[in-house]
Amino acid sequence: MSDMDTLKTEIKKLSAKAMQAKMDLHDLSEELPVNWTSILEVAQRTHSAFAELEAKRASLKALESA
User: Measured on CA atoms in the order 27, 33, 37, 43, is the torsion positive or negative?
Assistant: First the structure.
């Protein structure tokens, strides 16, 4: 498997992870004030997931333009 194929596979997995984190944050917001103490944890997990996804997409774009 090439580096590009590997990155595309990783991006697909990270995208699913980021979407799940987004939905977890959305669900949490709808349940407030229940579980309000987990806001920071869920938000940080969501932020990290999207940051990692963005970084991998940038790596793929750089690899494609090389």
Answer: positive
